Amino acid sequence: MTTQDQDKIAPIWTSNENIKTIYSKVLGGQRISFEDGIYLYEHGKLSELGHMADIVRRRKHGDNTYFNRNFHIEPTNVCIYTCSFCSYSRLIKKREEGWEYSMDDMLNIVKTFDDKPVTEVHIVGGVLPQYDVKFYAELFRSIKAHRPDLHIKALTPVEFHYIFKKDKVSYEEGLRILKEAGLDSIPGGGAEIFDEEVRKQIAADKCNSQQWLELHKIWHQMGGRSNATMLYGHIESFEHRVDHMERLRKLQDETGGFQTFIPLKFRNQDNEMSHLPEVSLMEDLRNYAISRIYLDNFDHIKAYWPMIGRDAAQMSLSFGVDDIDGTIDDTTKIYSMAGSEEQNPALSTRELVNLIKAVHKKPIERDTLYNVIKDYTNETFPEDEQFVGYLSLPILN
Ligand code: V47
Ligand code: SF4
To answer: In terms of pTM, does the model score above 0.85?
Structure first.
């Protein structure tokens, strides 16, 4: 954004002096503090947050809105861990619904995409002893042998910590083995909330916050790229959310290896935290906006549309989000089991492109590392004449 463009930004209309101060920091490209973050959660109006987040979004990406063509493989839905927000693991309850894919099962899933222009496979699931370093290294090698150009985004510190410890290899050594076998990048899962007390209550037995951050740090130092998530809207406070982002911002200052921050809204169906209500769409938008403002050193903020639904994903694009993932043909179950909006998360490229265009943004297909594959801004699809759009953006506050 040029200075001339900045002049075109309407000044924020507020009588709140603290918001004015934060606004001038955002406008001047200055980092906001921990206290500013808390203040925004506690006192920022949706319109103010959206306005500020949109300044940051536009400065970084203009109207560009990214998506990619990927598919998911979940090796198993059985897990030795017992996170209380998890609706997915079939270790204890509904064990008969558990699946455990073999290497061949997973290769067969990859082969079903042979004639599709996907660029990424996202592999993540439960943690079980038979999936060890050797297994994953062989899996990655076989996928690459079959389809060398497919980007493998796989596993999280939850799996890495478990398998490296079991196989008695250091984080460095384990990551080196898997990288050589074909691991290209690391998705953002397993972060939940870093605060130790909250983590103890919701995810007591898996890798801790320090281990999560350490593993990403080492991966970044090896030249790797990764994402980071935050599970919000359960028992955490606003302070815990800002603390979570603060720890990520610090690490990003050190390594620069994170690409995308993905806030994940807690869904309450069929898990041990079902008694908690889910937060509102308004809170989701506020949270996206504050993430965009706070994480000044993250290039991208992603709204994972299968989780929040298409309409909310469209709205999020005016609250700091510039990426909506983009699964075209998905087998992921972790959210549908937890009560996500989309029970059958599949969108064709045309639907995805039109969904982005309907809110006057530019649809850009990207690869995992955000290299542009295709700009769909001027692309017309045959059915476009009938397309009237999904929603016009409401004024919310
Ligand atoms: O870590 C589990 C979350 C995550 C629930 O990097 C839940 O591109 C809400 O990290 N309600 C795994 N969330 C998924 C993940 C992810 C997804 C999409 C893209 C990327 C990426 C990463 O799913 C877990 C946990 O935080 N999760 N249960 C639930 N009930
Ligand atoms: Fe296992 Fe992940 Fe579910 Fe926790 S969230 S129980 S680590 S599958």
So the answer is: yes
